[in-house]
Specification:
Elements: H1 7-18, E1 24-33, E2 37-47, E3 55-60, H2 67-83, H3 88-94, E4 98-102, H4 107-112, H5 161-173, E5 179-187, E6 194-197, H6 209-222, E7 229-232, H7 243-251, E8 258-266, H8 269-274, H9 291-300, H10 302-313, H11 315-318, H12 322-336
Parallel strand pairs: 3-4, 3-5, 5-8, 6-7
Antiparallel strand pairs: 1-2, 2-4, 6-8
Helix pairs in contact: 1-2, 2-9, 6-12
Amino acid sequence: MSLLQLPELEALERIIELGAGWLQARVVREVSLPGKGSYPVYVVTLGNPARDVPAVGYFGGVHGLERIGAEVVIAYLHSLVMRLQWDSTLHRQLESLRLVFMPIVNPGGMALGTRANPSGVDLMRNAPVQAAEAVPFLVGGQRISSGLPWYRGPKGKPMEAENQAVCEVVTEELLSRDFSLSVDCHSGFGSRDRIWFPYAHKRAPITHLAEMRALKEIFIQSHSYHRYVIEPQSLQYLAHGDLWDHLYLQSCERPERIFLPLTLEMGSWLWVKKNPRQLFSRHGIFNPLIEHRQQRVLRQHQLLLDFLSRAASSQKLWRPTADARAQHHAQALQDWY
C-alpha cells in the first residue's frame, strides 16, 4: 500500500530543492506507518555553522492534527529561500546567525490526522519530566491507555523516535552555543494567540526569567499593535513530560549558556467562533479551514518568526547586563508570578 499523501511534506521537499544552494537538509529519523512505509523527519539548516554565533530553532507539526503549526514554519522557510535570491541584508545577517528548521516533527501523526504519533503517544507528554504539582486529569498527561488523548507512553521506556530526533538536533545545533532561541508552533488552545515559555511542570520561575522579560520588552517596543499574550505556560495549566522543559533543564547544566524556548499557541477557538461549522470537522478545531483566514494566519506570524531571528543575531544589544538582571527579574516576578 502507498503512503498517505502529506502536502506539507511535499511543500517542504520542494523548498529544499529550491534552496539547494543556500541550505542543508538531512533526514534525522524515518517514521513508519504499519503496512504503508515510512516518512522522513527533516532538519533544514542555513546560515553560519560556527559555534560562536547564536542560533534560532523553528519547530512545527509536533501534534499531527495541528497542521497550521507546520505550515507557519514552512511558510517562513519559503520566504527566506525566496529572499536569499535578492536580499543582501539577509545574506549579511546569516553570516552571524544559524537558523534550524524542523517543520514536521510528527509526519506519521499528521498523515493519520491524530494528535499523537503512530504509536499513540503525545510527544508533548513524553519527555522524562514529572510535574512537581497536581496536573489536570488526562490533559496533564496520562499512562492509562494509548487509546485516550495525552498518553505519555510506557513508564521507563525511552522517548519516542520523533522526540529523540528533536533532542539530538537541539543539543547539536542550539545547546552547543552561548545563546539560542526556539519556537514550537501549535494550535488548539483558547481564542488568543499566546507565546508560552517554561515551565510547564511547575509554577516556579525559570533561571533566565530576566532574559525572557527583556525579550518580551523589545518585542513589545518594536511591535506596538501585537495581539500575543506572553506568559509562562504554568499560568494556564501544568503537565507531565513537556519536551521543552526537558531541554531547557538540560541547557541549565551549562550556566554560561542561554537557551530560551518558546511555544506559539495559536488561538484556534477564534477560528471556530468565526466559522462554527468547523466544530463538525476534527481538523477544524485546530486549523483555519477557510482559505483567506489561513492566509491571514500564515502572514501574521511571519513577523514573530522573523523577529526571533533578528533578536538572536542582536542579542548582545538587549540582553540584561549583570547589574540590570535583578531589576528585570523583579519586574518579571511582578508581571507573571
